Amino acid sequence: MPIITEARVVVTSPGRNFVTLKVVCDDGTTGVGDATLNGRELAVASYLADHIVPCLIGRDAHRIEDIWQYLYKGAYWRRGPVTMTAIAAVDMALWDIKGKVAGLPVYQLLGGASRDGCMVYGHANGATIADTVDAALRHRAEGYRAIRLQCGVPGLASTYGVARPGEAYEPADGTLPTESVWSTERYLRIVPELFAAAREALGPDIHLLHDVHHRLTPIEAARLGRDLEPYRPFWIEDPTPAENQDGFRLIRQHTTTPIAVGEVFNSIWDAKALIESQSIDYIRATVVHAGGITHLRRIAALADLYQVRTGCHGATDLSPVAMAAALHLGLAIPNFGIQELMPHLPVTQAVFPHAYRYADGSLHPGDAPGLGVDIDEALAATHPYVRAYLPVNRLEDGTLWSW
Ligand code: EZ4
Ligand code: CO
Fold this sequence. Notes:
The chain has 13 helices and 16 strands. The chain has helices at about 40-55, 65-75, 80-100, 105-110, 130-140, 185-200, 220-230, 245-255, 270-275, 290-305, 320-330, 345-350, 375-380; strands at about 5-10, 20-25, 30-35, 120-125, 145-150, 180, 205-210, 235, 260, 280-285, 310, 335-340, 355-360, 360-365, 390-395, 400. About 35% of the residues lie in helices and about 20% in strands. The strands form three sheets. Strands 4-5-7-8-9-10-11-12 form an eight-stranded parallel beta barrel, surrounded by four helices. A three-stranded antiparallel beta sheet has the order 1-2-3. The protein has a three-stranded mixed beta sheet with strand order 6-15-16, with no helix packed on it. The structure holds (2S,3R,4R)-2,3,4,5-tetrahydroxy-N-oxo-pentanamide and cobalt (II) ion (CO).
């Protein structure tokens, strides 16, 4: 059995910040886990280095479930994004080690492939409807079968999900939080027009998605869902903040547009009522922010009982380590739905060499033993941490709103 002798926390910023845990065993086997919590990175780095790593030394790396329970129950203070991201990093690294020792890709340890690959959705965005439709057509030409559409809102200077001209979209854009202005009324007018134009240009066979990013009230979200029904969206995401879970019942009463939620969830307890009440269709919790493969597998198993499928968050602030772990789980579980893909910058991919590959609108985790991803620590050291925050959002009268 591999005994843990060392665990290192690597903070690096190849294009954006990432926190990575590297676990080393006495037989030389290593494993990696993503510990990136966008905008609050150093809190997780400290949680790992100061509080978790000392508890790992000398443990049998094969006892994944026991170590998970030890870190979760043993902290006394349960749940929360910092705790669950730190536990996730350990969990991913241990699955990586188990796969390497077994000589098998992690998806084989999870029951083997249930499909040929994981369908992904790409991001099409633009300042105008026409620009966004053009971006969607380019994605289709690259083989994407599912595309998220976000466009600028007339009258607002900037909009969630829309890149500055010539740049890739990256939300953590300031050394202090930048401020954006929001108008629900203007937004609710433009999105149905965007979907009408996109459906017209792209035809019936492409899946079209949209992220509301927590900005509507339940009845406003119900209105949007109903307005989009003629264009058959694959889902609308995070229509309303999920602390008020009963709000999703209200949306459900008014629209058949599928609902995705959960990228900010960190525990099965955040998702349980939404799943059991059949208020949602896709659960977006991720391996990195929701306790690793061990815990996300539990969430997926609960969701499967209610025909809820996975739609894991996959923005650029989730490192290639988290993407690899998501793909191994997604390939294996019966109720995989779709995987978000925002391609990482080449400089990020160089720091995190990985076996997963894109082809024909899908990602496959590859067949390297373990997770099939690593961190080049020497290269990482050449990209020091840069403080970066997510933006805040205000209504036109200055009221602070959900971003
Ligand atoms: O704003 O990952 O669906 N994707 C998203 C992302 C989130 C960022 C926050 O760190 O909503 O763009
Ligand atoms: Co989102």
